[in-house]
Design the sequence.
């Protein structure tokens, strides 16, 4: 397990990231104390509606091992949330085309010729390849990646997730102008446009409405064209990134080669449950972090 002393060797610096369309995102740069020249840096793309702070422990671990890591929040989320979320325009294509692109450009400017490793979790695994500068990431690490289709979830989660995403969400979002997840005890609030896109999902394929079709297709085309090596990390008890969910995700990335796999079980971490989020927790996932780093260091 990552020791407290090791994590204390890193420091966190708040940063502001300007996107190609001018929006300013909030983020955090995790660096090893004392600085020094880095030969590689990491960019962590969050899951949908998951604040970047939730990945802080993992980012600090990477930094303590000499890999400075940038975490950032998509517009409307966490440190990138505006004063008022009602009616705030933020859709999935904005997160991919603008926010991911801005974070990649910021990290490239900061670290010059260093190798950039794109690390993505959950739906972030799809967004990470959707920026027009996604090729600046020399390789991808996709952890618990899926596309958000409820039919791919484990059977026991399908009905409650269907009711939540496709009944409750479209019912309350128009009233509030955003999805008030915090009030409902469901995590981070979601911008209304993204919430309605999520709620309208009815098939394994992403089928955007006419208003969003062109830009969504464009970012999916960029995913399809991306030629990079990738490490696919799976967790045996992940209820959302199931075998079917991963297959649907990888259908959008036909050119990620070579593609390597790293699979974990709760027993590997000495815990009873990891689930969809536990890999990034020091309590349930930190024992696995050195193994991920070993996989990154292994010859490609």
Sequence:
């Amino acid at each position: 397990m990552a020791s407290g002393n090791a994590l204390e060797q890193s420091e966190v610096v708040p940063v502001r990231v300007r996107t190609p369309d001018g929006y300013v995102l909030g983020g955090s740069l995790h660096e090893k104390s004392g600085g020094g020249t880095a030969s590689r840096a990491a960019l962590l793309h969050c899951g949908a509606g998951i604040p970047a702070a939730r990945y802080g422990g993992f980012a600090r671990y990477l930094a303590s091992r000499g890999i400075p890591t940038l975490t950032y929040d998509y517009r409307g989320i966490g440190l990138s949330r505006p004063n008022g979320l009602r009616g705030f325009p933020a859709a999935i294509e904005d997160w991919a085309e603008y926010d991911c692109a801005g974070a990649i450009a910021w990290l490239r400017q900061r670290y010059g010729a260093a190798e950039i490793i794109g690390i993505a979790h959950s739906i972030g695994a799809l967004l990470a390849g959707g920026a027009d500068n996604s090729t600046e990431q020399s390789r991808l690490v996709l952890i618990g990646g899926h596309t958000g289709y409820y039919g791919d979830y484990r059977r026991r989660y399908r009905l409650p997730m269907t009711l939540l995403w496709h009944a409750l969400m479209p019912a309350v979002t128009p009233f509030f102008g955003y999805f008030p997840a915090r009030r409902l005890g469901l995590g981070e609030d979601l911008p209304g446009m993204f919430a309605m896109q999520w709620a309208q999902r009815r098939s394994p394929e992403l089928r955007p409405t006419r208003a969003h079709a062109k830009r969504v297709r464009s970012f999916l085309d960029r995913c399809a064209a991306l030629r990079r090596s990738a490490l696919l990390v799976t967790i045996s008890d992940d209820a959302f990134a199931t075998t079917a969910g991963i297959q649907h995700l990888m259908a959008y990335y036909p050119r990620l080669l070579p593609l390597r796999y790293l699979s974990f079980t709760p027993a590997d971490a000495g815990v009873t449950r990891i689930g969809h989020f536990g890999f990034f927790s020091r309590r349930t996932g930190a024992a696995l972090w050195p193994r991920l780093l070993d996989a990154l260091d292994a010859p490609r």
